[in-house]
Protein: Glycosyltransferase
Amino acid sequence: MTGRSDSLRIVRVANFVTPVSGGLRTALRHLGTGYRAAGHTPVLLVPGERRTEQETEQGLVVTLPGPVLPGSGGYRLLTDRRAVAHELTRLAPDRLEVSDRTTLRWTGEWARRHGLRSAMVSHESAAGLLRTWGLPAPLADAAADRLNTRTARTYDTVVCTTDWAAAEFRRLGVRNLARAPLGVDLAALRPLTAPERAHERARYADPDQVLLVLCSRLSTEKHPERAVDALAGLRARGLPAVLVVAGTGPLRSRLAARAARLALPVHLLGHVAGRDALARLLGCADVVLAPGPVETFGLAAMEALACGTPVAVSRSSALPGLVGPAGVAADDTGTGFADAVRELLDRPEQTRRAAARTQAEQYGWPAAVAAFLTAHGAPPGGPAQESTEELRTERKDADQQGTQPQDAEEKRADQAHVARRLRGADDAPRERAQR
Structure:
């Protein structure tokens, strides 16, 4: 705890986080560290094997027992609402920040009952995920609209990291939105020198080969197979390319089988431990691929830019607006990504690497932390905004406008959302065939 009278205890709750998970874990760590540096008291509550408490650079991290979800790549889930509610009561937050719009949405109602200001951080496009899992666009959009309407009513603030992420809420007339981008660690992530790059890339590719890197969770919504297909397309055109994949997930074995069947040079590294090792990998690549079509920010792609490496990104995601001239937006096919890689390689190397770093420098973590604190009504260095009494009045007005109980159809959509996410949606084609 700090001695400041305006210091806030910001309790953050998240599912789908493991010691080896990627973007969300990184974002939570940097935000917590930033909140602490600004004089607040961050606490992170996540699932784990057992109950633990540990003081870290991002503040207190509490784990509660949660079951491992089969086929999810090791994810655990906070399923015991009573235990979570008890822990929240014990932690006595001033603000609640939730990074899950489905399995933890009930915590927004908990905050309402306790007179606390709450925020949900939208880390994904609901409609995009449902479409990725095979739901026809009209049905996906309708289900997402119901989910997003309920989310906006449940929390005081919906935090969106990009305008792209906010669009699915704005089309519903949602007004309690806050725009707060994520960031990149510009100090830890830097371009390699030419000798450093040559030394590092020698581990993966010959000097005359093109080194492609995919840093991603290997799950259905990320579409890692498009990176393999892009590699196949480039080699069919006579370009001697190789692909290195950093990350794990339920599609790992399928990806390996695809590469073997096509006789492609694909190196599956699994989880890359240590930020330095990951930075060296990103920095030695010629191009980093980001094929996920529902990315609302895409930390791995932005980290690649910080390392001076250009990126080929999905045209359907938020990334084209973030990477700007430092990347190329690709159609969502292997051919589309092969074309994007070819376009990037046609640019002089020094030019494309300088453009990458310049673009990343617009997204430092200090600005991101400041934006998140503003969303919480707690600008850095200033007193917390909005008294508890004002908040209760706002909530009373909102309640009088009507918040209908969750209908059965929306509940089924929520359950399907969670179930598919847990197993990587591997079974979606079979389920549709059975229907």
